[in-house]
Amino acid sequence: MAQTIRKPDANPIVAALLTWFVFGLGHLLINGQQRKWIFTLVAGIVGSFLCVLPGLVIGILSIIEAYQTAERLQKGEEIGINEYCQPLLFKIISMVDKEATLKA
Fold first, then answer.
1. Which of 16, 30, 78, 100 minimizes the number of CB atoms within 10 Å of its CB?
2. How many CB atoms lie within 10 A of CB 52?
3. What is the mean pLDDT of the chain?
4. Cβ-based neighbour number of residue 38 at 10 Å
């Protein structure tokens, strides 16, 4: 059985800002998704080293992902600890993280 998170106090704006300014920490501190935080951080760094554009795309998708996840948590939804909302970010991360899931 997959582990889930329930955090009705999650703040989407704070999650997006922390993800943007502080190494993606919105995923970890606001949304409680440690594994997602690690994989999006590493993918963003690797993408930036390969070429700036992939790192930038991953960074922007990660900010949107943190916001949307916090919105869902704030509404009282129960989400998986490694569940993604953004299909493109999910495709990128699922190449290395086989336990990643996409919101149905």
1. 78
2. 10
3. 93
4. 14
C-alpha 23/C-alpha 63 separation (Å) is: 10
Residue 36 C-alpha from the chain's centroid: 5
Sign of CA dihedral 36, 37, 39, 41: positive
**pTM, to two decimals:** 0.91
List pLDDT tens digits, range 37-67.
999 999 999 999 988 899 999 999 999 999 9
Query: Does 76 have pLDDT greater than 60?
Result: yes
CA distances from 96 to 5, 59, 80 (A): 22, 17, 18
* Annotated domain spans of the chain: 4-102
N-to-C CA span, the chain: 17
Q: Which residues pair with 44 in a beta bridge?
A: none
